[in-house]
Design goal:
20% of the residues lie in helices and 18% in strands. By secondary structure, the chain is of the alpha+beta class. α8 links the parallel β14 and β15. The two termini are 42 Å apart. The protein has two domains: 237 residues, no CATH class; 156 residues, no CATH class. The longest helix has 14 residues.
C-alpha cells in the first residue's frame, strides 16, 4: 500500500506512541514490521495499527509488540502528529516552563503548538508527561486540521450516551471530529469516554481516520469489524449514518456484542459446585439489531454451551463462567466465541435464594450444610447433571440471570436477516 502522499518512506524517526530507544520516537536499527505479537487477528484496532505501521507513521517496540492498551502522554502525542501531518506553522511556540530545550520531544512540542494541534496551560506549563485523555486528542486533531461543525453541535453530540461528560471547550471540536468520522469508540460505538486516558490503539485509530478524512489513507474495507466502531461510518460514500455500523455488512455481528441471556423460559438461578463443568442451553432475552434496525439475533435464540471452572490467579477464590459454543438463529446453528464474566463462589446462601433454582447433585449436598436444610428438594426447581465433582468444599457458585450476559470475542455473520 502506498497511498500516503508527502510521507517519506525514509522518515528519520518513526513515532512509536511511546518510549522505545527514547521516549516517543523509535529509532529502529532493524527493519520494522507491520504485524505485532500482541495485536491479534481479532483485536479491534488491528487495521488502524497495521496500516499506519506499514506506512511508517507509527512503529512497535523492539520485542515485536505494539502494546496497544498502553496510555499515551502529551509529549508522545505531539511526536505522533508531527510525524503524521504536514500542517503549516501558523504560530511560534512559547518557552514552556516544564519543557527544557534538551527534552526529547521539545521540537515535536514546538511543532504541534505551531500547527495548532496542542496548546499549553495558563501557568506557562505544557505538562509533557501527563497522560492525554481521549477528548484532548480529538480536540487537538479537530483544531490542528481546522475542522468546524456544520449544523447543531448538540444534535451531533446526541450520538453519544455520555455526551454530558464532554467539557465545554471540547464540544465544538468533538462534534466536528464526529462529522469528519475521526471518532472510533470501542467497544460501544455510542459511548465516547471523553475523560478516559487515550491508549496507543485509540490514538492509532483517530490518526488513521484523520488521514482518511484528508484523502491520504483509504477508508477501511467493508466487512472489517473495526469499521463498526467508527462513528457514522458508511463505506464508499463519505457520509455518515450516525450508528457506527457498516451498511455494506448488514449481517455482521461484531466482536464485543453483548448477548443478554437466561435459562430457557425462566428467570431462575443455576447453582453448581466449584470445579464442576455443566453443559446447558440458554436463551437470548433481547434482540440484536444492525444499523438499519433489522434483527440479526431474535429474542429466544438458543445458546448452547458450558458452565466451566475458572482459576483466578493469585487467589484462593473459586469461580465459574459460562462459555458459549453455538448459537441457533432461525433454525441455523453457528459456532460462536462468547463467554460471561467469572462468577465467584459463595459460602452464604439462604433457602429463599434457591426457590425454583436449578442445582447440580454435588451442589445440593453442599447447600444442605451451608443452609442447614436437608430437605431442599421442596425448594429447588430441578437437579441437573454436572461433571468433575469436587472432593470437598463449603461453597457453591450461584449464577443468576443478571450474571449471564455474554460477550462475543470474535465476529460472525448470520446467513439472513430475521423478520422483525
Amino acid at each position: 500500500m502506498s497511498t500516503v502522499s508527502n510521507l517519506s518512506a525514509k522518515t528519520t524517526a518513526l513515532v512509536a506512541l511511546g518510549s522505545v530507544a527514547i521516549a516517543g520516537l523509535a529509532l529502529p536499527a532493524t527493519a520494522q514490521t507491520a504485524e505485532f505479537d500482541d495485536v491479534g487477528t481479532n483485536y479491534w484496532a488491528r487495521p488502524f495499527i497495521e496500516n499506519l505501521a506499514e506506512e511508517e507513521i507509527i512503529a512497535g517496540f523492539p520485542d515485536g509488540t505494539f502494546r496497544p492498551d498502553q496510555p499515551v502522554t502529551r509529549a508522545q502525542f505531539a511526536a505522533i502528529v508531527r510525524n503524521a501531518f504536514q500542517q503549516p506553522l501558523d504560530r511560534t511556540a512559547p518557552r514552556f516552563s516544564d519543557v527544557p530545550s534538551n527534552y526529547w520531544a521539545s521540537a515535536a512540542i514546538d511543532d504541534a503548538y505551531g500547527q495548532g494541534f496542542l496548546s499549553g496551560y495558563p501557568n506557562g506549563a505544557f505538562q509533557p508527561e501527563t497522560q492525554i485523555p481521549r477528548v484532548q486528542v480529538l480536540v487537538a486533531l479537530a483544531n490542528g486540521l481546522d475542522y468546524s461543525t456544520s449544523g447543531s453541535v448538540n444534535e451531533v453530540l446526541g450520538t453519544y450516551r455520555d455526551a454530558s461528560q464532554i467539557p465545554d471547550y471540547g464540544r465544538g471540536p468533538v462534534a466536528a471530529a464526529t462529522q469528519n468520522e475521526l471518532v472510533v469508540n470501542y467497544p460501544n460505538v455510542d459511548v465516547l469516554g471523553p475523560q478516559r486516558t487515550a491508549t496507543r490503539a485509540d490514538v492509532a485509530a483517530f490518526i488513521y481516520q484523520a488521514l482518511v478524512a484528508q484523502g491520504r489513507m483509504p477508508a477501511l474495507q467493508s466487512g472489517l469489524s473495526a469499521s463498526n466502531y467508527i462513528v457514522g461510518y458508511t463505506p464508499g460514500t463519505g457520509t455518515g449514518t450516525g450508528n457506527g455500523t457498516s451498511t455494506s455488512s448488514p449481517r455482521l455481528v461484531p466482536n464485543g456484542t453483548q448477548l443478554d441471556v437466561r435459562y430457557p423460559n425462566a428467570d431462575v438461578d443455576i447453582v453448581v459446585a466449584p470445579g464442576q463443568a455443566v453443559a446447558t442451553n440458554l436463551q437470548t432475552t433481547q434482540a440484536i439489531l444492525n444499523g438499519q434496525g433489522q434483527v440479526l439475533i431474535p429474542v429466544g435464540s438458543t445458546v448452547q454451551g458450558r458452565i466451566v471452572p475458572v482459576e483466578i490467579r493469585g487467589s484462593s477464590v473459586t469461580a465459574a463462567k459460562f462459555v458459549a459454543d453455538t448459537l441457533t438463529v432461525n433454525g441455523r446453528t453457528y459456532n460462536i466465541n462468547a463467554e460471561s464474566s467469572a462468577i465467584a463462589a459463595t459460602d452464604s446462601v439462604n433457602s429463599g435464594t434457591l426457590q425454583g433454582a436449578l442445582i447440580t447433585g454435588a451442589a445440593e449436598s453442599i447447600l444442605a450444610s451451608i443452609t442447614g436444610n436437608s430437605g431442599l428438594g421442596s425448594v429447588v426447581g430441578a437437579i441437573i447433571n454436572g461433571e468433575n465433582q469436587p472432593t470437598s468444599t463449603n461453597a457453591v457458585v450461584v449464577i443468576r440471570p443478571s450474571d449471564l450476559d455474554l460477550t462475543l470475542r470474535s465476529d460472525f455473520t448470520v446467513d439472513a436477516i430475521a423478520n422483525n
